[in-house]
């Protein structure tokens, strides 16, 4: 299902993650120097120089090189990719875990930059920027009425740490323009979305990707929840496409006894590099549950595989993506980069969870789509794995290689969401867009409400459910919510809570009826 870009809210913290390829393990040793000796390589260099100097028309040889690089990498594997300079900056910031800016979540609403919510304790919040404000000018640069692309907007709002920017704001609630001076600062891009107790002794931590700060964020959250009485732990890796391998390994180390194998890699020369747990584990006794789905990939699969193969916990959900390749990144002078697959990784039992890619990239990614058609999102028996590639854990449990992590406890999509169309819609940007527009009509209706009063207000009305149904029809989507009313109302309430109160409140509402959480708590 495709949605028009104008209906997708742009959250600045998450937009900086654009360009991270699904399942990218960013395990980069220092980059070696390469000397061109091969005659075929020299042929390519000479051809580009020849075109540059002699071709009859003016040609951007950089674009030719980019096409050449893309075509070469396409012949290798789906995860060896070229990243152009504009995307590489965003990827680097996202994986670093912070950037320098003004600290707002914003969305291009009609022809203007609308503030969804200032980052808590960030520069904009401290300077007085409010939800619903329109940013008309950044210094003297006009931002409204120009349909600027996201990267242009980011460049206007980001800058050097400690530098000042003057925003001209239109505040709809007061019908006036305001000038606000903001001093740019480091803005964290959190990889842990939520950390809370789902009952008196069960902690829940949601990880959206594995960035440089993920381990420290995770440990901080885990220690806080332990102090609140957590004895068991749910790690939610659903829709986590991966990231830094080291961060996933460090988290796995917290759960495994000293010298237990976490993961190993093997390169083209057959060299094997094994990583074992150390003595530092802070949660080696409590029950562990790892939630995965069809979009959990790479570093997520390393963590899930280590837990499953060492019989340390229970994997809950649906079969993961199936990405078991390790990349090294090579940077170029123009700011672009190439990620090249340099090894395969294997879970402790010795299984590779990489799904086949010999039929080309299109077939590789369509395999994920085919899981709906072949029924495996609904029935565990429909999961396609290489049953001949069997492995045994230390306690004798059978696990399979060749296509993702198969959960110990299967939770079908239809139980979790009602229908796949409704499921993907409710977790897409279009829901956030709708909620912003509803809040924008009259924020006074929600001003001063406590979270509990807000929940009571939302649960007693169908106004927003009916409005959302009309919104969907009005945007050309023929999707009737009649059979999923309670589900849609819950996600609507959760999105209102996110924009009004913050990210953790979204999860407080959604998790109450989450099928995977229910499966754990049983």
From TrEMBL:
Any GO molecular function: serine-type peptidase activity
Keyword terms: Hydrolase, Membrane, Protease, Serine protease, Transmembrane, Transmembrane helix
Upper classification of the organism: Bacteria, Pseudomonadati, Bacteroidota, Flavobacteriia, Flavobacteriales
GO biological process, one term: proteolysis
Keyword Transmembrane: yes
Regions crossing the membrane: 7-28
Keyword Transport: no
Gene Ontology terms: cellular component: outer membrane-bounded periplasmic space
Family indicated by similarity: Belongs to the peptidase S41A family.
Protein name, per record: Carboxyl-terminal processing protease
NCBIfam families: prc
């Amino acid at each position: 299902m495709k949605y028009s870009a104008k209906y997708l809210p742009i959250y600045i913290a998450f937009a900086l993650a654009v360009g991270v390829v699904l399942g990218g393990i960013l395990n980069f040793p220092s980059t070696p120097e390469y000397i061109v000796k091969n005659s075929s390589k020299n042929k390519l260099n000479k051809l580009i120089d020849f075109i540059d100097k002699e071709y009859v028309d003016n040609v951007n040889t950089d674009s030719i090189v980019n096409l050449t690089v893309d075509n070469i990498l396409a012949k290798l594997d789906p995860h060896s990719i070229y990243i152009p300079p504009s995307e590489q900056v965003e990827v680097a910031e996202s994986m670093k875990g912070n950037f320098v800016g003004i600290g707002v979540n914003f969305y291009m609403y009609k022809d203007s930059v609308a503030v969804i919510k200032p980052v808590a304790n960030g520069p904009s919040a401290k300077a007085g920027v409010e939800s619903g404000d329109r940013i008309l000018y950044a210094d003297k640069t006009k931002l409204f009425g120009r349909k600027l692309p996201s990267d242009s907007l980011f460049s206007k709002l980001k800058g050097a740490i400690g530098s000042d920017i003057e925003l001209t704001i239109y505040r709809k609630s007061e019908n006036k323009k305001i000038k606000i001076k903001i001093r740019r600062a480091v803005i964290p891009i959190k990889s842990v979305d939520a950390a809370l107790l789902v009952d008196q002794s069960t902690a829940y931590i949601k990880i959206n990707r594995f960035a440089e700060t993920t381990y420290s964020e995770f440990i901080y959250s885990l220690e806080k929840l332990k102090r609140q009485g957590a004895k068991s732990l749910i790690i939610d890796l659903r829709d986590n496409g991966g990231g830094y391998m080291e961060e996933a390994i460090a988290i796995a180390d917290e759960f495994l006894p000293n010298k237990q194998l976490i993961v190993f890699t093997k390169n083209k020369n057959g060299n094997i590099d094994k990583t074992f747990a150390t003595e530092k584990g802070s949660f080696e006794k409590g029950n562990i549950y790892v939630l995965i789905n069809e979009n959990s990939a790479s570093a997520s699969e390393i963590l899930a595989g280590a837990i499953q193969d060492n019989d340390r916990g229970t994997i809950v959900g649906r079969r993961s993506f199936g990405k078991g390749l390790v990349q090294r990144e090579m940077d170029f002078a123009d700011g672009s980069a190439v990620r090249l697959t340099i090894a395969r990784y294997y879970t402790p039992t010795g299984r590779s969870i990489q799904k086949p890619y010999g039929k080309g990239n299109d077939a590789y990614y369509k395999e994920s789509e085919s899981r709906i058609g072949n029924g495996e999102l609904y029935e565990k028996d429909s999961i396609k794995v290489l049953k001949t590639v069997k492995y045994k854990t230390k306690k004798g449990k059978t696990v399979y290689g060749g296509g993702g992590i198969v959960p110990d406890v299967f939770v079908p999509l239809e139980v979790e969401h009602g229908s796949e169309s409704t499921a993907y819609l409710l977790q897409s940007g279009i829901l956030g867009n709708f909620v912003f527009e509803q809040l924008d009509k009259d924020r006074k209706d929600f001003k001063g409400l406590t979270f509990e009063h807000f929940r009571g207000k939302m649960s007693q009305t169908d106004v927003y459910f009916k409005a959302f149904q009309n919104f969907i029809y009005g945007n050309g989507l023929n999707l009737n919510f009649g059979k999923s009313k309670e589900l849609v109302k819950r996600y609507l309430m959760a999105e209102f809570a996110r924009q009004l109160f913050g990210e953790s409140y979204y999860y407080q509402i959604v998790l109450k009826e989450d099928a995977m959480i229910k499966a754990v708590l049983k």
